[in-house]
Amino acid sequence: MTHDEYESLSTKKLKKLIKQTKATLNELKDELSKRKEDNQHSEIDHLEDHMEEVEHGFSNFMAFLKDVLKEKK
Amino acid sequence: MSEVSHTNSGGGSPSQSTIISILQWISIALLVYLLISSVGMIGAGFKGATKGQATELFQFATNPFMGLIIGILATAMIQSSSTVTSIIVGLVAGGLPVETAVPMIMGANIGTTITNTIVSLGHVRKKKEFRRAFASATVHDFFNVMAVAIFLPIEIIFHPLSKLGGFFANMFVGGENMSVKGLNFVKPATKPVIEMFTEISRMISESGIYIVLIILGIMTIFFAITVIGKLLKKLMVGRAKIIMHNAIGKGPLTGLFSGAVITVLVQSSSTTTSLMVPLAGSGVFRLKQIYPFTLGANIGTTITALLAATAISGETAVLALQIALVHLFYNSAAVVFIYGIKNLRKIPIRGAIWLSRIAADNKVVALLYIIGVFFALPAALIFITNQF
Predict the structure, then answer these.
(1) For residue B133, which of B251, B273, B253 has the smallest C-alpha distance?
(2) Residue A64's domain spans which residues?
(3) What is the predicted ipTM?
């Protein structure tokens, strides 16, 4: 909608639109936060894999060293 | 929400998994007994070796910065603050002055942060992921260094942590009221193991019996804590998942509490803080959400020293409990003070973000940071302290 189109709206209609937009914005925010939380839940479902990762500290360090040396060459 | 029991590591029948689970819990009980006994061994060995001259022997560590460095280096090398704090409890029981031990405990807090920093290096291949992972690891470093910078000078001048620890330790095991002296069954229970190890030490070296006993005690603590950690990881991963699922969408206090509970369950702050690294690296969890979890781990880890303090009876029991309580009060006070004040709370986050950006652009910085903070700087400080 352009500015001219807004001007043609009544104040009552404008207030109604604002209310609707606010409600839609809240719904969108809720949906976004729900999706974020769903992603977090699904990441936590892989906690066993992350536990495994914790065990590989030394190999992680060695891989990192190789990477750094490769980058420097 | 999925609640999967992961006690069955072998994938056998339900009855088999129950038997395995029971055996694992029995092993943990035996290892805790061994841990408590080994703290007693260190106490007895140290008392025997120093013949009441512990203060003179640890004269070099009366400089609080030296104590701090010892704590950092020892923990960074063996990557277990639980082991180091348990050893410190044993040493205090053997005569190491509490005021010498307090900076060591603070140093152990810094030293333990190396583990999750190393874990974060595993994300090095993907720049953004590495930046997030490295920030989630180093926020713990920044917080712990900041805690030392604030609380060590205060402790040196006014001794509030030692006084508070001493007050409660006296209340629990030293005074007439609320004393658990009459209930102390630990000494007779651990006596056979300590005697057995004393005999082994005598067989190894008649003249150096107490030194050998201390070494055996340290090795046993390390073994017990390592195996307990491995078993608890398997047994408690399901419980940890439930706690973390429940913490999602709730405030930082829930995160803090969850981090503390998970650390108590797995008996390792390194495990809890390292677990947060891949969660942050993936981008699913934000640094602000990870931060309270890692602080909770600081509080949860103090349970091991408290457990170790139960090994000590007699006149030094108060001192052993005092240093264990100092660990608890220090970590709790650091969280309340730094995390409780908005402007202070932001500093570790800003520091971690700043460092991770630099490290993601130039990986050598990450390497230099680890070597510098955990090894080179403490070593240089030891050198400087010895010169003056």
Answers:
(1) B273
(2) 3-72
(3) 0.77
